[in-house]
């Protein structure tokens, strides 16, 4: 069993751990999104007990199957301290099964507050410690330094929002910085500078549902690409949108509802995840 203090997959830095995971299990980030409607769809109560049953099925089905598992923190947080307790169990269970865990918390702040967020998700002794966490750079990329530094030190990662799939993000993310590049491109470039040491510490989040207009060639880190399945993108769409990616091994398509709809059986979840993964690998080959 993997201890929460120990990275779940071997290799030097987050780059090595990520590469090892996708080489063994394929390029898929499987989401755990215990939305109330999904709990009801599975015949579970919208309660902490229902949340725990949902999460346990996901751990059993996805933990041994997916390279990366992404719990959506908000759906656990909605149940207060009891929900966070279930999230702790979920993170530990997925990592014990050999998956990397990306906590989808989208944290972003400044100074000591950002340092506290970093410690909560990336400090090995923390109850919620994960292999990586999503972060928002829109208080300035430099404000993420505490998370970047801790992630590099502990062999973990941060996934920085760059060009997201929601339409409301377009105006901000495509705005020009000094009339030379978009805000989203500046985020990618800053992440690439972090990764210049070969650590792969800084991934970026770039949606798969539309053309992104980004130059990702120098990133040298993972590209989390949500939008597969319920949001409308197919594996073929992912391949087309990211056709110019310098190293496709860094591409990590994400699917949640398309997999979770197969529940509540753990075997059915594992089969659905395997099907989506195989579609991704065929499209990106």
TrEMBL record:
Active-site positions on this chain: 106
SUPFAM superfamilies attached to this UniProt entry: Ribulose-phoshate binding barrel (SSF51366)
UniProt superkingdom: Bacteria
Catalytic reactions of this protein: orotidine 5'-phosphate + H(+) = UMP + CO2
Pathway: Pyrimidine metabolism; UMP biosynthesis via de novo pathway; UMP from orotate: step 2/2
EC number per UniProt: 4.1.1.23
Domain Orotidine 5'-phosphate decarboxylase: 27-272
Annotated InterPro entries: Aldolase_TIM, OMPdecase_AS, OMPdecase_type-2, OMPdeCOase_dom, RibuloseP-bd_barrel
PANTHER family referenced in this protein's UniProt entry, alphabetically: OROTIDINE 5'-PHOSPHATE DECARBOXYLASE (PTHR43375)
Assigned protein family: Belongs to the OMP decarboxylase family. Type 2 subfamily.
Protein name stated in the entry: Orotidine 5'-phosphate decarboxylase
């Amino acid at each position: 069993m993997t201890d929460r203090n120990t990275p779940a997959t071997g290799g030097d830095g987050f780059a090595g751990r990520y590469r090892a995971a996708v080489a063994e299990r394929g390029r898929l980030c499987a989401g755990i999104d215990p939305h109330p409607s999904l709990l009801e769809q599975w015949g579970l109560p919208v309660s902490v007990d229902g949340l725990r049953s949902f999460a346990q099925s996901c751990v059993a089905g996805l933990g041994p199957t997916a390279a990366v598992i992404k719990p959506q923190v908000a759906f656990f947080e909605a149940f207060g301290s009891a929900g966070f307790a279930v999230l702790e169990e979920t993170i530990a269970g997925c990592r014990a099964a050999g998956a990397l865990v990306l906590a989808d918390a989208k944290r972003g702040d400044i100074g000591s507050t950002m340092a506290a967020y970093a410690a909560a998700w990336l400090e090995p002794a923390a109850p919620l410690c994960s292999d990586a966490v999503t972060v928002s750079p829109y208080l300035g990329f430099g404000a993420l330094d505490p998370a970047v530094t801790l992630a590099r030190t502990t062999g973990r990662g941060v996934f920085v929002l760059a060009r997201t799939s929601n339409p409301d993000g377009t105006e901000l993310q495509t705005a020009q910085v000094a009339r030379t590049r978009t805000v989203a491109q500046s985020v990618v470039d800053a992440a690439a500078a972090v990764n210049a040491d070969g650590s792969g510490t800084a991934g970026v989040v770039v949606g798969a549902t539309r053309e992104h207009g980004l130059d990702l060639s120098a990133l040298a880190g993972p590209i989390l690409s949500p939008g597969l399945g319920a949001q409308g993108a197919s594996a073929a769409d992912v391949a087309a949108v990211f056709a110019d990616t310098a190293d496709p091994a860094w591409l990590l398509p994400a699917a949640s509802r398309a997999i979770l709809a197969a529940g509540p059986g753990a075997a059915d979840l594992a089969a659905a995840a395997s099907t989506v993964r195989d579609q991704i690998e065929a499209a990106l080959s």
